[in-house]
């Protein structure tokens, strides 16, 4: 496991895809998802040139933040309980799991600066997945306009757990269409220019379909299953 080599491979893949489809590879931001790995492994990602770190639990975020705090932009990518907002809010620049008004109100109340939020959408409709339904999205984003510390920078989704690339692609295409709908509303607090989609197994498809933030754990920093 060499994080530097992994990152180079991923960046090369990004460059090749972008060249092929006419996108600018500078628009693709790699978030190293460090939930399965040690602080040392997270540090190795930063040394390799990664700028964004993502954690899905309060404990993991706090442990790594204590050591690596100002070296990275921090992303909270996991489902977030309202009562935990106060424990993470001063550390994160981005939250990828905003999916309900009650959570947004708590973020708005606890934050002392605008937080860049992705509204998580359950595009695939799987019951196990978090996120607001595509039908609720418009309404939720409009409601968020009264909350000055909530900035809707984009939408986030997780593809269904399947090997079927067509199913995965359809999910990402749908998120792109939802993004265009939100952009058309021209809401001041919801520019919605970003798309957080794509993980180790499907980031290449996600980039083809418009991802700007990809969240990569296993194929970048590995899985030690004993991370903090
Ligand atoms: C764990 C996780 C990832 C990274 O998954 P890998 O398959 O290891 O790349 C991305 N996004 C979210 C929300 C996650 O929980």
Note down, in words, how this protein is organized.
The protein has 228 residues and is α/β, with parallel strands linked by helices. The protein has a single domain, classed as TIM Barrel (Alpha-Beta Barrel), CATH 3.20.20.10. The chain is built from nine helices and eight strands. Strands 7-6-5-4-3-2-1-8 form an eight-stranded parallel β-sheet. Strand 2, helix 3 and strand 3 form a beta-alpha-beta unit. The model has no long low-confidence stretch (mean pLDDT 96). Bound molecules: pyridoxal-5'-phosphate. Pyridoxal-5'-phosphate binds next to strand 8. This is Pyridoxal phosphate homeostasis protein.
Q: H/E order of the elements?
A: HEHEHEHEHEHEHEHEH
CATH architecture: Alpha-Beta Barrel
Supply Rg.
17 Å
- Give the averaged pLDDT, no decimals: 96
Strand content: 15-25%
CATH topology annotation:
TIM Barrel
| Helix count, DSSP H or I runs of 4 or more residues | 9
Number of structural domains: 1
Task: Name the CATH superfamily classification.
Answer: Alanine racemase
Give the number of DSSP strands: 8
How far from one another are the termini?
18 Å
Q: Give the class from helix and strand content and strand pairing.
A: alpha/beta
What low-confidence regions span 5 or more consecutive residues with pLDDT below 50? none
Adjacency order of strands in the biggest sheet: 7-6-5-4-3-2-1-8
Protein name: Pyridoxal phosphate homeostasis protein
Keywords: Pyridoxal phosphate
Family: Belongs to the pyridoxal phosphate-binding protein YggS/PROSC family.
GO molecular function: pyridoxal phosphate binding
């Amino acid at each position: 496991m060499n994080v530097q080599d992994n990152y180079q491979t991923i960046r090369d893949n990004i460059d090749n895809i972008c060249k092929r489809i006419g996108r600018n590879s500078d628009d693709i931001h790699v978030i190293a998802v460090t939930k399965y790995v040690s602080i040392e492994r997270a540090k190795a990602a930063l040394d390799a040139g990664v700028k964004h770190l993502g954690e899905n639990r309060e404990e993991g975020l706090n442990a790594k933040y204590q050591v690596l705090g100002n070296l990275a932009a921090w992303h909270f990518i996991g489902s977030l309980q309202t009562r935990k907002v106060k424990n993470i809010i001063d550390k994160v620049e981005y939250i990828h799991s905003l999916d309900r008004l009650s959570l947004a109100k708590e973020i708005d109340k606890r934050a002392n600066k605008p937080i860049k939020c992705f509204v998580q959408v359950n595009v695939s409709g799987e019951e196990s997945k978090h996120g607001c339904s595509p039908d609720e999205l418009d309404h939720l984003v409009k409601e968020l306009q009264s909350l000055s510390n909530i900035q809707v920078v984009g939408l986030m989704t997780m593809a269904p757990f399947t090997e079927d690339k067509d199913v995965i692609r359809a999910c990402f295409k749908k998120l792109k269409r939802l993004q265009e709908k939100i952009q058309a509303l021209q809401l001041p607090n919801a520019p919605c220019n970003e798309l957080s989609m794509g993980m180790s197994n499907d980031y290449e498809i996600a980039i083809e379909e418009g991802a700007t933030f990809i969240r990569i754990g296993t194929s970048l920093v590995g899985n030690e299953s004993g991370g903090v």
